[in-house]
Every structure is written in C-alpha cells, then in structure tokens.
Amino acid sequence: MVNVARQVEARSPSSGVNQQGVRDHNERLLLSMMQRLGPHAGSDLAKMANLSPQTVSVILRGLENDGLLARGEPQRGKVGKPSIPMGLAADGVLSIGLKIGRRSADLVLMDFLGNLRSQLQTTYRYPMPETVFGFLRAGIASFQASLSRAQVNRIAGIGIAKPFEIWNWSETIGAPAEDLDQWRDINFAEQIGQFSALPVFVENDATAACRAEHIFGKGREFRDFAYFFVGSFIGGGVVLNHSVFEGIHGNAGAFGSLPTRLADGRNGQLLDSASLFLLEAALADVGLEPSRLWAQPQDWTGFPDQLEAWIEQAAQSLAYAALTICAVIDFEAIVIDGAFPTIVRDRLVRRTQEAVSVLDSRGLALPHIIGGKTGGNARAIGAASGPVFSQYLLNTHAGLASA
Known about the structure:
The chain is 36% helix and 19% strand. The protein is an alpha/beta fold and 403 residues long. Strands 6-5-4-7-8 form a five-stranded mixed beta sheet, with helices on both faces. The chain has a five-stranded mixed beta sheet with strand order 11-10-9-14-15, sandwiched between helices. A three-stranded antiparallel beta sheet has the order 1-3-2. The longest helix is centred in the last third of the chain and has 23 residues, at 304-326. The chain has 13 helices and 15 strands.
C-alpha cells in the first residue's frame, strides 16, 4: 500500500524560560510560535510557551511597539473580557532573497508573513558574476523605489541561495570552465557591499529551499522530514526537531550525492538520474529548445514523451533514495518539490509513491511521500528567509528542544 499524507495540525516549537536575561530567546520563541501557528491571544501563548502571563504581556507589548506585531479583532468567550489575538505584522520585517541558478536568477521582496511583494527574474546560458550582481543591484533599487522610507528601513537583509561549487559544473551546463571559475573566490558580502549596506546571508540553494518548506510549507505539519528539491541538479535538506539541520560539514541533505545505480547499469549519483539537466538534454536531442523549461510562466506541454520518460526515471531513483535515507533516520515524511509546474510535481510524487510501494522495504515503515508547497520559488523564498530567521526567529535545533 502507498502511504498518503495525513492531515496533521501545526505543532508548537517548544516552551520558553522565565529567567531574567533571556528576553531575546523568549522574543524569538513567541515570534516563532506566531509564525508557525498564526495569531494567538497572549494567555494562549503563555500556556504553550510555559511562560508566565506577565512575561508574555511585557514581551508582546514591546514587540508591538517595535512594529513587529499587529492586533487582531477581539475574540469574545463565554466569560470575562474578550481576548485580543496578536500576530506578526506583515510590514514588520521585509527581506530580499536572491536565487542564483544555473539557468536563471530570481529576486524577491518578502514580508514578515512570507508574502512576496515583488519578484524579478533574469535568464542566461550560464551565470556570470557581473550578470548576477548587476541584476541584484538593479533589483534592489527597483524594490526600494516602490517602498516608503519606513518600509525601506524595515528591510532586514539580503539572503543569497547559491549552488554548491558552481565552478565544478562547467561541462554539465555547457559553460567554459574559465568563466565559471570566477565564482571560486567570490566574497558575496564584499561584492554586495559595493552597492548596498544591508547585511548579507549566504547558504546552499537546496538548503534554502528546505528552509522555505520548513517555515512556510510542510514544516508546519512535520517535526522531522527529508526534502528533495529538483532543479537543474537535484539537492535537498533535512529537518530535525523543527529545524533545518546542516551538519558539521554542511553535507546534511546533500541528496544529489547519494550513490545510485543508473539506468545503463553504471554506478552514479542521484543527480545523474533525477535532475532537470537530463530533461534539457532530452529536449535538445530532438531539436526542441531547452530554455523553455525555465521560461515564466512555465508551460511544459508539447514534449510529453520526453517528460514522461524523465518522470519515470526520476521517480525510480527518488524511491530508492527515499528508502535509503529512511533506513538511517526515521523521517515522518519525504517531501518532493522542484522548479517545475505543479502538475509535473504531482505526477512525480504519485509515481514515486508507486515505486516505493513495490521496493523491498523489510524492516522499515514506509514514509509518507508528499509534494511540497513552496514550489519553484522555494530557493528564493528560502534565501529571503535567511535574514528573518537569523534575526527574529528561533533555531529550534540549537536549543529550543531542550528548553
């Protein structure tokens, strides 16, 4: 039997502490709870966080004065005064996210609720620093011109989601090695500092996508899950105890490097059998323009044979990968998303579910295999989440679980 997704209520991150001198922790805790669970009355937050009502009241008042929270409509109960739910203020924090892809770059302006206020995209044959940083500079200017002075002052920073060692992929994406090698010694903070004083946060693109799913997608339902993001190259991330886990070397969730057996019997990696560059190559082989995969809005009709063959191959590989990683960590779910239309994601997820159901899974409980919610914008949204997460939300894996 194929496991299907359960309807699971959002889970609270954890509880707080009442000691003096830890207000920053408790502020982050309450903001994290409201981000995950939505607006709540102070009394409810106090119970969920294991904090005194007085402590929560003081913190909420301060956060409201700082413009980070907004009051909801009074909620009348059976007895007593009506409670007033408090939630994140959309304009309380703004952030900018840049996704550097192998075929395109996306730039977003995101508010505190995760809504995208503005979005820009540029495409290219392969990324060059001057192209990407020029796009970022112009985009920041465009975003700021559309905002009030007060809103500009609310921008928390710039998050960058970039591929791991992009200079090593010249042969696969058809770029001169000497061109991509320019990325090897790039200092992002220095480059961006030439035209913006905003703080810069840089992370792997698949990790950023996982963070977006963790904060705004299925992370609301599952404590622990493995995440696959299918882009030009497949990557992923790991969420443990309500937090993205990167590992001591940053390799956690580097699922593209998982060893696998390729269709022709050779040994390879998951990225060699479940990445979109393979579909690009299949389109080029029959004389179709591969760049149509990245054009917005996405329209993947017109090549059903190549798409079906790619889905079948990718699903088989994802099924083996899912079973492999669940033999190491007992994940609640495997979440699959990518830079493709929703209908393609749904077909890939369904075929992966079917493929997992017929594998030899002795000794294992099959995981729930489900589609993600953040879609093709996951990497840019995750990048924009970096400044917000670093400055306002709580990294549960680093200490919340033990609080």
